[in-house]
Amino acid sequence: MRQGCAATLGMAVLLTAQPAFAQRITGSLVGTVRDPSGAVLPGVTVALRGEKIVGTQNSITNESGFYRFVGLPPGSYEMSFQLSGFGALRREAIRVSLGATTEIDAELAISERAEEVTVVGDTPVVDTQTNGVSTNFDKDWVRRPPSPASASST
User: What is the CATH number of domain 25-107?
Assistant: First the structure.
C-alpha cells in the first residue's frame, strides 16, 4: 500500500511539472571568458545583438570570468568580447533555442598593439643667480595706471 501511494504521488508530480516546463518562452546564453593560458578574465565587456532584441545588451564578466544573458527570445545572435590589453573577439550566428541554455565560452588573445604616451612639458626659466623681483607692464596698464584711491578701496 505504501509503495502504491508513493508511485501515485510520483506520477502526479511528473504530470504537473511537464506543463510548467512547456510555458518557458525564452532561452539563455552563458559562458566563461579565458586568456590563452586558461586563466579566467574578469571585467570583460560582453555585448549581445540580435533581431529579436532592441539595441545591444551588455554584461561584464565576474571574478570567475562568467557572464550570463537570460530571458532571450529564440533566434540568432551576435556577440562581441572586449577587454583592454586583449584583442576583441566576435561570434556570429549563435542560436538561442526555446527553453534552453546555450553555453558559449571565449578565449581572448593578448593584444599585440602597444601604445606609447609621451608627455612633453616646458619647465619655467628660473634665474638662480639673483633674487630680484620684476614685473612687466603692458600698454593698457601704462595708459590707465591704478590710482591710490582705487587701490585702498579693494
Answer: 2.60.40.1120
Please name which of 103, 61, 114 lies closest in space to residue 83, comparing C-alpha atoms.
61
Cell 565587456 belongs to 45
Domain ranges, ordered by start, for the chain: 25-107
Give Cα 44 to chain centroid, integer Å.
6
Q: Could you read off the pLDDT of 101-146 as tens digits, one per residue?
A: 999 999 999 887 655 555 555 555 555 666 666 667 777 777 887 7
